[in-house]
Amino acid sequence: MRVGLNVANFAAPGGPARLAEHLAQVARRAEEAGFESLWVWDHFFWDQTPIGPGVTDREMIEAYTTLGFLAGVTRTIKLGTLVASATYRHPGVLVKQVTTLDVLSGGRAIFGIGAGWFEEEHRALGIPFPTTKERFERLEETVQIALLMWGDEGRYDRAKPFLGKHYRLERALNVPQALRRPHPPILIGGSGEQKTLRLVAQYADACNLNGRFPADQLAHKLGVLRSHCERLGRSYDAIEKTLYGRLHVTQTGHSGTMSTTQAIAYCRTLADLGFDTLVLVDDTFDIYDPAALDLWAKLIPAIHQIPTAGR
């Protein structure tokens, strides 16, 4: 089983003037600790959910600028959004951003994408917030455009158009092309059974479910994904199953935290359900405390030894 790290806390010691310094340290420490992937949210405001209701004025920075910076201070760790909102950028621009990240990182980009949900964030910044139905239509067209652009031959006179319901591209030209072939991995985030998991089965290389679901519900969600795959003729095993987990782990599990032994047992449970990757989000512990990632550096080798069910 693999482990990724999602950095969501940008309230670094010393404030914005020292944020770049601290983020670089976190990224390098995560790479050295054995985290396979490094993720950021695609938000402009901080939302307290599930910690509490409402939007706060806590620090939040733009995703792809951040990932470009992190690419420059790391060498091997994969980089992605968990997940980008299909409503925030025109698909052609978004695919160009992901392609640029892939080229400049040496083929380490992951295209994490979702339909978008944060209505207050949209309205506050003047971004249109379509209906749920339209957001999912835009998500599907965005993925289709990504696949079209990543299949582009790099010739202006051969670049193909895209004529969708919401987007029209006259030439889906993409030069330079992404280094990762046939394209950067596509991860579609969300757990909706009728739309999201169907899109995963049809287009994606990975899914992402929320660790707030109990084990029986997670098993049910994966069963739904398997059914979609069977109906569409897609290999269920070809899709990486990732889970978004809020784990505050300490050596002994004091004060309501999870002990290292409990963390290993939790990862075994996930693997038995069929998950390949746990993505640890930092909003329950201090990412800027070196001891936090040092502890995970000791855990990750043991987690890597846990086989995923069916693999």
Our Rg estimate from Cα atoms comes to 19 Å
Q: What is the structural class?
A: alpha/beta
Architecture, CATH level 2? Alpha-Beta Barrel
Distance between the termini: 10 Å
Largest sheet: 8 strands, parallel, barrel
Put simply, the count of helices is 9
Q: State the helical fraction.
A: 25-40%
CATH class identity:
Alpha Beta
- Helix-strand sequence: EHEEEHEEHEHHEEEHEHEEEHEH
| CATH topology term | TIM Barrel
Give the strand line-up of the largest sheet: 1-2-5-7-10-11-12-15
What is the CATH superfamily? Luciferase-like domain
Low-confidence blocks of residues: none
* Number of extended strands: 15
Give the percentage of residues in beta strands: 15-25%
Average pLDDT, to the nearest integer?
A: 94
Summed up, the domain count is: 1
Taken from the alpha-carbon principal axes, the silhouette is globular
Describe what you observe in this structure:
- The chain has 311 residues and is α/β, with parallel strands linked by helices.
- The chain is built from nine helices and 15 strands.
- It has an eight-stranded parallel barrel with strand order 1-2-5-7-10-11-12-15, surrounded by eight helices. A two-stranded antiparallel sheet has the order 3-4.
- The protein has helices at 19-33, 63-73, 91-105, 119-125, 132-150, 196-203, 215-232, 260-273, 290-304, and strands at 2-7, 37-40, 46-47, 55-56, 78-81, 84-85, 109-114, 162-163, 168-169, 186-189, 206-210, 240-245, 249-250, 258-259, 277-281.
- The chain has a single domain (2-304), classed as Luciferase-like domain (TIM Barrel, Alpha-Beta Barrel), CATH 3.20.20.30.
- Helix 3 (91-105) packs across helix 5 (132-150).
- Helices cover 39% and strands 17% of the residues.
